[in-house]
Each structure stands twice: as structure tokens, then as C-alpha cells.
Fold this sequence. Notes:
Mean pLDDT: 79
Strand content: 15-25%
Order of helices and strands: HHHHHEEEEHHEHHHHHEEEEEHE
Low-confidence stretches: 97-105, 197-210
Structural class: alpha+beta
Distance between the termini: 56 Å
Amino acid sequence: MYDIDAAASVEELYLDMVRLHSAGLLSASRLESLHQSLDEVDSRHEDGSEEHHAQQRVVLASSLRRALHELRQGENAGVAEAWYEGRAYARKLNRAGVREAEHYAKNTLLIAGMMGVPTGKEDLVLLVALPVGGYVVVKVGGIAIHRAAFLLRKLRSVDDVLEHVKPWGLHARYAANDAELRRVAGNEAADAALRTQAHIGAPREGQRPGRENVWNPSDRNDNCTACVATIIRNSLEGYFKYSADEMERLFGYAGRERQFNVDASLRYIEKATGLKATSKPVTMLGGAPVGHYAIFTRWSDGGYRHVVYGRVTPTGRVVIFDPQTLEHMTYQQMQQRDGAMARPFRLEAAE
């Protein structure tokens, strides 16, 4: 049976958990359960007290033991064994005064609602994927990586990051696309982001060449209604929680056999998001209201064949994103691609 290093600190135990998660050996729900347990400990004990620290260690050690024991019993036993032996060896090197191999420092870490990419022993690039595309990038320096990961565990959404990084003396930047991410975050962080699906926290399975589609993991071409619903629902939640597959599990199948027309598609999106669509199509151009839009496109044979996601930002920028295919485009590019007869409907808070 695996055992826990008696000399390991609270931060090191937590870092082992997020490394397991990053390696695809620990589910997002298990990591979230750990966060909830740590939150409960925080609420019951004075921050920094001896009892607070002791209870944090109890929670982390028991969670790590359980996770490793379950892995050893499951189909990933061989992977888990190698992972455990590698971590144990790295600790022996540390205690002997030898720094961890760079291999460990460069592992992608999945921390709460974000992805952390260590680029050195005490430098971390923090990436938060936005529901409408792009990243918020925060560079963390001057804090040991294991300490940074533990401190940042409570940041679960983009809003959390933006609220806390400034008081900590950190600076957040926005990267709108892959090229800008590479310029802002550096090649190592950008490469990790492109290897990892946009949701910081879930392992990729059955990866195919090209970008993995977190919104449409089953890679279907008939579930665009569910894909748009998941964009909006996740945006309202503040972090990634639902894929199109999960939308269908919760709110019903949205595939070809349903033969959705515009009204049926809008009713599905309303049910899945709790928002209400405008009764008639609206314009998204020329000072349109800020908010989420469902845009019906590909008019042919008397009906629309596709729906994509649209958003008007607080600065007035119009964002068009097809979550089914991971395509970003301008409104004009959408019209050129799918025909000029697009019909946008704004999704508003239900009264």
C-alpha cells in the first residue's frame, strides 16, 4: 500500500493531488471534494494556527492515501505505481540537497478552475480559459510553486482571479487567441494550453490530431443547440462545468432526430440556461445590448440548419463562436461562410 511521506508539508501534499489530477489520474469531482473539505477546515479554525495546519494535513494526507490506494486497485495501477515511485524518488533527491528534475517542474498543473504551467522552480504562468474563448494570463513569481498552488486553490472562476491577483501584487492580462497567448505567456505555457482542453481540471481521453473540443467532446455535427447552451450555462456559472454531452444528459437529446426548428432550439436553450430569448430576431450590430445571443445560420430549403453563439461585450465588441467546430469569426465572416440570412436572438434574464 502506498504511504504518505511523513516529512511532506501541507503544500507538497496538495501539489501531489493537483499533479495526480493533471496526469489524468484524479477526477475533477474528487479534486473539488478536496477543496470543499479544505474550505470547511478553514471555516472552523483560525488561519495559520497549529490546529488549522494539523487539520489541513489530515484532510490532504487521507485524500492522497485514498486516491493512491484506489489507483493501485484500478486499471491505472501501473501508471500510478510509476507516478508514486517517481514522486518518492524526487523527494529523496530533495532531501539529499538535489533539486527536482526539470521534468517535474514543467508538468502542467490543474489548480481549481485554472491551469498552472510551471516555467521554472519558482515561476508559474496561470491560465484561466474564458467561456467565449481566449485566456486570462497571470504570471506568478517570487513564491515557490507548491506554495502558489496551495494559495490559489480557492480561485474557482475568472472573477475570483481578477478580484484577488491585484491585492497580491500580480498583473492579469488577456490573450484573445493562440498567437497572443504565446506572446503574453511564453512558448512553454502556450504549448501546454494547446495540449490541454480549455477546461482546467479534466483529463483528455481519445485525443485526436488537432485541438480537442471541450464543448463538443463527442465531436458530433448535429448537436449545435446543446453546444450553444453549454457556452451560455458555463458563462453564467463562472467556470467550465458542462459539455454538450452533459447538457443532453440533463436536458434531453438535441440531435438530428429531434428535427429542431428555430423555436424548438430556443426553448431548449432557455430550459438549459434559465434565460429567456427575445420574441423576435434582433440586431447584434450598431450598439446592440451587452449579452448572450443565439444566432441561427445556414438558411436552406425554407429553414435554418445551424446555430452558433454570439456575444456583445461591455466594450461593444461582437464575438461569434461556433462551439461545435471551435471556430471564432466576425459577424461578417459568419455571413460569408453561412449566408447573409442570420437571425440572432438575445438571451435575457427571465423576469
